[in-house]
Design brief:
The protein is an alpha/beta fold. It has helices at residues 27-40, 45-52, 57-64, 70-86, 97-103, 117-126, 149-158, 172-180, 190-193, and strands at 8-12, 14-17, 24-25, 92-93, 109-112, 135-136, 165-169, 184-188, 199-201, 207-211, 217-221. A six-stranded parallel β-sheet has the order 6-5-2-7-8-9. It has a three-stranded antiparallel β-sheet with strand order 1-11-10, with no helix packed on it. The chain starts with 7 loop residues before the first strand and ends with a strand.
Length: 222
């Protein structure tokens, strides 16, 4: 996977963090549940997995089953969220996430996730990670990523201009959302590389965070 070779320094005033694939590796449970769902609906599992990362479940279903009524997608999504919240087998920290979040403790940041409150709480706990004080979850928005609403709401809640925010994301939908919000994007992991973030690294061990002299955030990505 191509990664940053020469250290890159990014200056920001807030960091907006996706959860799944960025802070928490939940691929094992996502694969189990979505491949089972795909089989139940006669869909190809590999093709399904290319769609579902980063989006709310009902938004993925709308793309995969475009003729199905939205009400059925919402009902299916609620059932699958309950299944995911009950299944923490294989949910682990993305390398470096705990140290990264500890460095952000007193700096402006937010979690911006397509998971709901229950699922984000459970997965962060399963990975042994603290929850940021500000969370923008599925309940907080009217549109799923790749719509930028979640990132824009987080920036507004922090009182930071979108152009002064840096997004951390792993999925195509999330990277597109960050771009649409007018924010720079650090891509995490192999999945992110193909969607053209500003910088891409294999995990959070390659990112150093420190407060800058002007009260902002200095990121060193290498």
């Amino acid at each position: 996977m191509p990664v940053t070779v020469t250290p890159v320094v990014l200056n920001a005033r807030a960091l907006l963090l996706d959860m799944d694939g960025t802070l928490v590796n939940s691929d094992a449970v996502v694969e189990r549940i979505w491949r089972r769902w795909a089989a139940e609906h006669g869909l190809d599992g590999d093709a399904t997995m290319k769609v579902v990362h980063g989006r709310q479940g009902h938004a993925s279903m709308a793309l995969l089953l475009p003729d199905r009524p939205h009400e059925e997608n919402l009902a299916d999504n609620a059932r699958m969220l309950a299944e995911e919240t009950a299944d923490m087998d294989g949910v682990i920290e993305v390398p470096g996430a705990a140290v990264f979040l500890a460095a952000l403790r007193d700096l402006p940041h937010a979690l911006v996730t397509s998971a709901d409150v229950a699922l984000s709480t459970a997965r962060m706990a399963a990975a042994g990670l603290p929850l940021p004080d500000l969370r923008v979850t599925a309940e907080s928005v009217g549109a799923s990523k790749p719509d930028p609403e979640g990132f824009l709401k987080a920036a507004a809640a922090l009182g930071i201009d979108p152009s002064d925010c840096v997004v951390f994301e792993d999925s195509g939908a999330g990277i597109a959302a960050g771009r649409s919000a007018g924010m720079r994007v650090v891509g995490i992991g192999e999945r992110a590389e193909r969607y053209g973030p500003d910088v891409v690294v294999p995990d959070l061990t390659r990112v150093t965070v420190e407060a800058s002299a002007d009260g902002g955030i200095r990121l060193t990505v290498e």
